[in-house]
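Work package 3, deliverable 3.1, input record:
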Amino acid sequence: MFPLLSAIIFLPVLGAVLIALTPRARVTLIRALAFVFSGAALALALALFAGFSRNVATPQYVERAAWIPQLGISYFLGVDGLSLPFIVLTAMLTFLAVIASWHIELRPKEYFALMLVLETGVLGVFSSLDFLLFFLFWEVELIPMYLLIGTWGGPRREYAAIKFVIYTLAGSALMLVGILTLYFFGSAHTFDMLALRQQGIDPVVATFAFFLVFFGFAVKLPSFPFHTWLPDAHVEAPTAVSVLLAGVLLKMGGYGMLRVNVGMMPDVLAANAPFIGALAVVSILYGAAVSTVQHDLKSLVAYSSVSHMGYVLLGIAALTPGSLGGAAVQMFTHGLITGLLFLLVGVVYERTHTRIIASMGGLAPRMPLIATIFVIAGLASLGLPATAGFIGEFAVFVGAYPSLPWLTIVAIFGVVATAGYILWMLQRVFFGPPNPRWAALTDANRWFEVAPLVTLAALVLVVGIVPSLLTDIIQASVPGLASSPLLTAAR
Amino acid sequence: MPAITTDLNIALLAPELALAVVALVVIGLDLVLPAERKSLLAYLGVLGLIAAGALAVGLGGSTQVGYAGTWIVDPVAIFFKLLFLIAAAFVLLSSIDYIRRRTDYQGEYYAVLLFATTGMLMMASARELITLYLALELTSISLYVLAGFLKGEKTSAEAGIKYLVLGAVSSAALLYGMALTFGLTGTTVLPDIARQIAANRVETSPLLMVALVLVAAGFGFKVAAVPFHLWVPDVYQGAPTPVTAFLSVASKASGFVILLRVFTVAFAGLTPVWAGLFAVLAAVTMTVGNVGALRQTNVKRLMGYSSIGQAGYALMAFAAFLPGQSPAVNSATAATNSATVSALLFFLLAYALTNLAVFAAIIHVSNRLGSDELADYAGLSGRAPVLSLALLLGLLSLVGLPPMVGFWSKIYLFYSVFNAGVIWLVVVALLNSALAASYYLRIIHAMYLRPAPVDKPLAADAPLGLALAASVIAVVVLGLLPSPVFQAAASAAANLRP
């Protein structure tokens, strides 16, 4: 059988190697290689999407080979309803990010090569079913991101890049202790993530392991109080890198929680649900409050991510089939919407050369296409029905209420706050009296600006109107994640 | 256990003898070769190292003891001998250009380097304290000379003197510890010491504790464990860079082989005592090394602190030893200890290859820029893209990131130590790794994120390029396919017996 998953994961890094071998001066060829290889990965990911059986809960397209028998590590890949959406999302956003980076003139060779290596790392995380392989891919993503932020970023890029690395490494260090704990203290003695779901483990040890891996994921998600790297990284990162950071890297955190904390230790999660739910609610409200007072358009979007990822955490904490599905949907749609928002901030900045909200105003008549798409993205971000933003949030609230009623009620105020800061921002940037300073600005008019914007905007609407495209897949595996034999026994 | 004989089987000394002969030939040829052809001596040295390696491999497989029990050739000895020989070959290749530019005494340099290597080969096989001490001194005295080899340069002369004085003090401590051990047990042969300790019931004797601590201090100097690390920054910075590479790789590994022999064999009965001691030493060593590296502005000095940090990780293996290896061997305990030794071997090999790659790059920069200051690495990626990529991969391996071999060496080591139950130490080590990443990243940061002062490309030179390419390729290939070397380390460790 054709190893479709391996092909999807390693096509980008093959492209990166070819780019590395291309002479520096041949910029067009470098761009073309990045376009072709990220495009090929996307095409195969769509083939995976088409060929996926929607009523099977267990992993499909499984590839398994012994790799390092001395440590019990195998090359074990597979996709289920939880991982498939994120594989498609990663392939799509990377492809769009490559297009949106067409005009990069500072060392395009390194830029595109790193972006493709990053894609391989992230795709590997979403496809691995061996815990150490998962960890390996988790670490691969680090250095490309460091260099992308640190080389092509804004004025404080070096600080932001090193902060990102230190936070992530601290998280992954503790995660590794957690992985080893699950391995050595469980009954299964394996890194096989499916077998780890079935194993028996002492509840005290399980609690210890739970919080070690939870910390690693919570840094990535990020959840309050581990979120402070995120605004720095986002504000400094170049546009396309912000898109990937918000669109796919944060999802690694939520994905890990669903796969590991929910999938392997649901009883520990159930026991600590109020605490984790409280973290979620603080993230939601604090993120929204801080977004409201931002002067910088990009940091507003960055803090809104903290708030939106809070809904994901709330869905996970509530641990009902509906809330878990909602969390997965929310992550996917947040990837589309926030990716789109960062692209929009990027094209606006290209024109105004400022991101200070107060100095904009009345941009809509100058750039009707950008304004229209920005409004679509904004409305989706605040969760308007018929946009992609609605379904995830709604499913989280409905699913979480029976389990964590008070926290859910408090969290709903986050929606109000989101509506407030998004609409206020749209009003200040695009409407109101036109600022004469911007009279000469043009709309998005280059193909590499228009194409990603239109594609993502269309997807935001399509997923909002036909959510079954997404929910059918997630429905296949995610609600069943928490029903491990252990949990059933514990209840 | 193999029978002890007084068998004077000269074949057991073949690698050492071959290398000593080659070193003498190098000295002789040095007299007749014209100055511009002296680099031939380095290639001759490499050939000698390869020959010694072939002889060592020829001895491999079984465990053989000879010379009245003072000498042992077992898979662990062969493993370390090959490690030393590989390191010496890389260092010779990296030295050619560096030494030619800086001194007229090229022949002496190569010969002394070969003598140091000979001493290390002996350390891997010593099974008796006097033999061990002689081997250690042959290595150390050669290294004192090498550290101060550029006697016209103030920093090198300072490095030589510092290393000599502190090294002599540590040798004295070691010798005193050995003398006390001999006084208590009446023997210097390692397994006999263990037997006497058990027979005379002196496990709790305060004098034996003093002996143990003194021996640990002497070896601690060799591996640069805190608090015996104070020589490292100055010597690493001042010594000729290829010698620094040799110190950080081969000399350190030789410290670990004698630690392994003496503590797991002679002091096997005291395992709980020294395992606890090494747990504290490991934690303190890695933390001091990594914290010390944070503020360094000289790359060689930074790598000195890095080597202290890495020694701290390797010392974890000794903290993970479980008691009861002999005489009543519990099979589960033996398996755990064997896995720990195997992880240590793999870690040292991975560290050696990685550090050789990193130092080859540093030597290259030093040859072309005449500087080891971090600030001068600015924008290197634009001026020497291939060199920068090689250094990047080496540094990522030191951080412990995939797909480099350093990822697996750490995973394997932490896995083994965790398995032995010293979980707090694994947590300390992992937090240290995260901390250490920030100073390795400073080099990467300078190369990739800082603008270059000038755009002039750096020229390459061939033998150094070969050393760099070979070590980087090994770092990446072993990162992707570590299994065969895991296997080799495991089978060597499984055969480690008194």
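Chain B touches chain A through 32 residues (CB under 8 Å).
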